[in-house]
Specification:
The chain is of the alpha/beta class. 43% of the residues lie in helices and 13% in strands. The strands form three sheets. Strands 5-2-1-6-7-11-10 form a seven-stranded mixed β-sheet, sandwiched between helices. A two-stranded antiparallel sheet has the order 3-4.
């Protein structure tokens, strides 16, 4: 596939722009989904959808893992595409994004061409002024940094992708595949999605509200978005001394209201649930790392190892040392 392909007759046309040190998974997950949707079998012909990789210069762009991609062309009129997709990467390299790149995104938005930001491209779109007053999908790891930098944007961390007024954002990773699958379903129907899932050996197409951190056993049962955001806030601050008041302020409710919501949906107080999160994380560290019990206690927000050991035994019925020994004997 190359520039000689006539993409004007395809049903879905996508233009990709890559930032310096972009993440390869975010890019390949999205573009591979398009490839699978573009043709029958495994021929890779751009019959139903096609794409181009663009930049202001035709010099190679290095990904965060070191692999390089050469743009196919310089920036083309964004109106020739159905979507412009920006792939972000390392935060430390976002200041290398050119002024021409930012201006191109502004032009796309000006002409009402939907812009998609993958991974940390949400930071790029915010710099371009495209996220002011808009909800946007941000990776939970970068949530606090994003909030501080762009107070006028409305970051979301409990959805795999977010669409608001012509701008779509995804936190990156495997979530970009979920987003691409939704576009395929929109243009070609659910049957094409099933074909892609089989070819890419994927179990299922995750819904938009699937959590970014699905390892929590009871997370899927939380239907109230305020409680979900509070739980995410707790996860992000598992080593810190945050209070119920801090969590309530984070999600925009009163302390009393948050306590009531936690009782309804989690049958626990915010403080009690936060302690359980810390203890469960500590349990995982005991089984899966060689960190000392003292280090684990501090990492999980406990003031000292004796206090940690007391709380741990109350919750699990045995000491942290017993868990560590059991993990060692099982070959962990």
């Amino acid at each position: 596939m190359g520039n000689e392909d006539n993409i004007s007759e395809t049903a879905l046309k996508v233009g990709f722009t890559l930032t310096p040190d972009f993440t390869l998974l975010a890019f390949t997950g999205f573009i591979e989904t398009l490839r699978q949707a573009a043709d029958v079998g495994d021929m890779s012909r751009p019959i139903w959808c096609s794409w181009s990789v663009m930049n202001d210069k035709l010099t190679t762009i290095k990904s965060s893992c070191g692999l390089e991609v050469t743009p196919w062309e310089t920036f083309r009129d964004p109106r020739e595409f159905d979507y412009i997709v920006v792939v972000g990467g390392l935060l430390s390299s976002l200041d290398k994004v050119s002024d021409q790149h930012i201006e191109y995104l502004k032009q796309a938005a000006k002409h009402n061409v939907p812009v998609i930001g993958l991974c940390t491209a949400s930071f790029v779109l915010a710099e371009a002024g495209l996220l002011d007053g808009r909800r946007c999908g941000v990776h939970w790891y970068h949530y606090q940094d994003f909030k501080k930098r762009y107070p006028n944007a409305l970051p979301v961390i409990d959805e795999l992708f977010v669409e608001d007024q012509g701008v779509i954002t995804s936190p990156g990773g495997s979530a970009t595949t979920d987003l691409a699958l939704k576009l395929v379903e929109k243009y070609f129907g659910a049957e094409r999605v099933v074909k892609i899932l089989r070819h890419m050996i994927l179990d299922w197409n995750r819904p938009v509200d699937h959590p970014q951190t699905p390892y929590m056993k009871d997370y899927q049962e939380i239907t109230d978005p305020r409680v979900r955001r509070a739980v995410f806030y707790m996860e992000q601050n598992i080593s810190s001394s945050i209070s119920t008041e801090d969590a309530a302020e984070e999600v925009g409710v009163s302390t009393r209201q948050l306590e009531r919501l936690f009782q309804i949906f989690l049958h626990d107080s915010p403080a009690g649930y936060f302690r359980k999160l810390r203890l469960r994380h500590a349990n995982w560290l005991l089984y899966n790392t060689r960190k000392s019990i003292t280090d684990i206690a501090f990492e999980c927000g406990f003031s000292d190892s004796s206090h940690f050991a007391k709380r741990y035994k109350e919750f699990f019925g045995h000491s942290p040392g017993h868990t560590r020994a059991a993990g060692s004997s099982s070959g962990q």
